[in-house]
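Changelog entry: the Type I secretion outer membrane protein, TolC family record was regenerated in this release. Current contents:
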Amino acid sequence: MAGKRVWNKRIASLLAGGYFVLSTTAVFAAPVELSLEDSIAMALNNNPAIKIVQAEKETAAWAVNQAKSAKLPSVDLSHSSQRRDSGAGIGVGNSFSNGVSLSMPIYTSGNLEGQIEQAKLGFQSSDLEVEKTRQQLKLDATNGYFAVLQARNLLEVNRQSVDNLTAHLKNVQAQYAVGTVAKSDVLRSEVELANEQQNLIKAQNTYDLAVSSLNNVIGLPLNSELSIKDDLKYQQYDLTLANSIDYALTNRPEAEQAQLAVKSAQQEIRIAKSGNRPTVSAGANSGWSDSSFPGDENNTWAVGVTASWSVFDSGLTKAKVKQADSSVNKATEQVRQTLDSIQLEVRQAFLNLKEAEKRIETSQVAVDKAEEDFKIAQVRYAAGVGTNLDVLDAQLALATAKTNYIQAMYDYNTSKADLDKAMGVAVN
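Regenerated structure tokens:
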């Protein structure tokens, strides 16, 4: 009976273990299938960077309302309750008072108008910042996507190299067994295979890192497995360098932001100069006071207009104007600097694109010839007219040619993405 209980416990334990395995297997998520368009869309929806600039844009919108409110009427209500001893034998008494006042600026010599205009310019700049961030996220997602494709292709090249060297080693060992080759051929082939296995381990790690980086950009858990639908492709780019630069100068958000910064600095001059000019405001107030709560007797009121003009401020306004002038000069130079930087970015991306385009054709030819050379070297070695070194060199040349082709395709696609970003191509 005791033995039966032990046996039942063992069965229950095995079943529980099996259930645990099945349960943990069931929760493993399937690889997420992604196209390039999917990656970009997820980055635009999930990345914290876009949420940050959208919040900043909302803040800028409220700043406009805040600036506008300074020109509108404001109404204040007040109430005071006191119990006090007035002295002189009068004794302790209560006093209650209420008041309402209204004030409104009539003329501020451009001060409030300048602040409102600055707030509007800030909102426009924040809107451009959103578009700039969208373009950057598109670039990050695109480069991350292509990095996964490149790593995946290079991983396959390393696997093929390991397979080729494994098959070659078996051939060498078979020939050594019948005494047709020297022991050195076996040892050299084993060393080359071990080295390539090391490269395969590194290539797998590079792929895993590329997947994690893309997951980070598009907002997935870093350990998510991805199934990439596309491959590195070549699509001819038709625009000239001059056309690309002209497009960039017209459409880059940074160019317009720099112009807005100049306009904002010019408004700062307007605000500063208002210190030397008069201001006019209107006001009205009414009050009630009584010795009994709530103090609604003894009504008083007043309506008036107040004008003020600072005729001497020890040079404060002059200093502010000079400071604002310097800000305009700085912003103007930053416009020129920004436009120069944009042109340089476009030129670099365009030239990199064309350079990679040329490498694609030559590297494809090299791959074809390297594959043929490797096959010939294998046949010659099997026939006893070639050397082990010929096969190993041909394998290395084949792997190098494939790697160069993949690198050229990756450089072309990422350079095209860089060029779109440098030109300020809008994100749909």
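The longest strand covers residues 92-107.
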